[in-house]
Amino acid sequence: MKHPRRTKRGRMFWVRAKVPADLKAYYAPKTEIIYSLKTSDPREALEKVRIASVQIDQEFNTARRKLNAELRVSLSDNEIERLAAIHLHTGRVRSRALISPFRLATKRNHNPLKPLNSF
Predict the structure, then answer these.
(1) pLDDT greater than 70 at residue 104
(2) Pseudo-torsion of CA 80, 85, 87, 89, nearest 10°?
(3) CB 45 within 8 A of CB 39
(4) For the chain, percent of residues with pLDDT exceeding 90
(5) Residue 7: strand pairing partners
(6) What is residue 109's three-state secondary structure?
(7) Percent over 70 (pLDDT), the chain
(8) Is 0.85 topped by the overall pTM?
(9) How would you classify residue 38: left for phi > 0, otherwise alpha for psi between -120 and 50, otherwise beta?
(10) DSSP-derived secondary structure letter, 28
């Protein structure tokens, strides 16, 4: 059975999809999506190209949504507070992870590269 996006190069099968006209600016300079299905078996290639075709169509739909999305220029007070809390929390977690081993090493006056149980 044939599939419009399945092509063959030598012994291997490839998926090949043309970029839709409304997305050419988004994908520029690419004019098509093409990659190997990594199989030389026609039946397996047909299964893989069907899956790949759905994924490519989903990618095109996502690109369309991104192009059509309006940019937000303002945030509500609740959104600002939530983002600030997330930033504050992740900053604390990162700083603890980076500073704690150093503090532990300096408080015990030992080389941080040596294990704690060395004699």
Answers:
(1) no
(2) 180
(3) yes
(4) 50
(5) 14
(6) coil
(7) 73
(8) no
(9) left
(10) T
Residues 43 and 28: their CA atoms lie apart, in Å, by: 33
Scanning the chain, the segments in alpha helix (DSSP H) are 24-27, 42-68, 77-107
| Largest pairwise CA distance in the chain | 73
The reported pLDDT for the residue numbered 50 is 96
The answer to whether the CB of 49 falls within 8 A of the CB of 37 is yes
- Which amino acid, residue 67? L
Does residue 97 have a pLDDT over 70?
Answer: no
> Cα dihedral angle (109, 113, 116, 117), rounded to 10 degrees?
-130
Q: Enumerate residues 6+ apart whose C-beta is below 8 A from 1.
A: 46
**Nearest residue to 39 via CA among 1, 15, 13:** 13
